[in-house]
């Protein structure tokens, strides 16, 4: 496995990464979630580490072990991830939101397991906070804020809207309907977009290579 491309351009930088799929429990045994495995965020953390950064990884439930050298914070829900991100954000230079945040949560949590015959036919839902948009509001000029957009069909237009609406410096538009990309895969592909209008397409490659391409791309964003 190639962990390094030899670049040490993140020495002295603090990189904050979120990854994995957040979970919103209805009762102790059932949740709303998504198929994210967190491997893209792991690759980003490894790439940043090998480029010399101090790395913090805020992760939703994952099945792999966080490599040594990376500061890990485990969370479950979007609210917990948001709180952890907001706490770490002021100290970070580069922030990558690679987590797949469950967009909604059950309006109510039942602390005792519901027997299936008591499960409702429809489930009242509430939106969870948009963590990345909140970070965009708080962003300082020296900080570089990067999002991911997992999309099907036309990936560029919705990703550009997210870039603008959430006040990001860059976004990785990620086609999840292409073979060997997206959830759970060891490979991925993306179109990187930045707020200056640059657009770079990355052909399918390992998630680690894609992570290095992303740090190469954002290294070239002019600071305001
Ligand atoms: N994101 C977030 N908090 C949320 C939802 C999304 O921080 N509650 C972040 C994701 O981590 C990702 C980016 O926003 O970096 C885009 O996520 P995406 O799901 O593509 O966008 P949404 O704004 O949730 O819009 P939709 O799901 O309707 O496409
Ligand atoms: Ca979403």
TrEMBL record:
GO molecular function annotation: FMN binding; metal ion binding; phosphopantothenate--cysteine ligase activity; phosphopantothenoylcysteine decarboxylase activity
GO CC, one annotated term: phosphopantothenoylcysteine decarboxylase complex
Keyword Glycoprotein included in the entry's annotation: no
EC number: 4.1.1.36, 6.3.2.5
UniProt region (Phosphopantothenate--cysteine ligase), positions on chain: 15-224
Pathway in which the depicted protein is active: Cofactor biosynthesis; coenzyme A biosynthesis; CoA from (R)-pantothenate: step 3/5; Cofactor biosynthesis; coenzyme A biosynthesis; CoA from (R)-pantothenate: step 2/5
Keywords from the named record: Decarboxylase, Flavoprotein, FMN, Ligase, Lyase, Magnesium, Metal-binding, Multifunctional enzyme
UniProt keyword annotation of Magnesium present: yes
Cofactor: how bound: Binds 1 FMN per subunit.
Cofactor entry: Mg(2+); FMN
Residues annotated as domain DNA/pantothenate metabolism flavoprotein C-terminal: 10-218
Top-rank lineage group of the source organism: Bacteria
Catalytic activity: (R)-4'-phosphopantothenate + L-cysteine + CTP = N-[(R)-4-phosphopantothenoyl]-L-cysteine + CMP + diphosphate + H(+); N-[(R)-4-phosphopantothenoyl]-L-cysteine + H(+) = (R)-4'-phosphopantetheine + CO2
Signal peptide per UniProt: none
GO biological process, one term: coenzyme A biosynthetic process
Binding site for CTP: 103, 113, 129-132, 148, 162, 166
Family of the protein in this entry: In the N-terminal section; belongs to the HFCD (homo-oligomeric flavin containing Cys decarboxylase) superfamily. In the C-terminal section; belongs to the PPC synthetase family.
Record function comment: Catalyzes two sequential steps in the biosynthesis of coenzyme A. In the first step cysteine is conjugated to 4'-phosphopantothenate to form 4-phosphopantothenoylcysteine. In the second step the latter compound is decarboxylated to form 4'-phosphopantotheine. Catalyzes two steps in the biosynthesis of coenzyme A. In the first step cysteine is conjugated to 4'-phosphopantothenate to form 4-phosphopantothenoylcysteine, in the latter compound is decarboxylated to form 4'-phosphopantotheine.
Protein name per the record: Coenzyme A biosynthesis bifunctional protein CoaBC
Biological source species: Allocoleopsis franciscana PCC 7113
Gene: coaBC
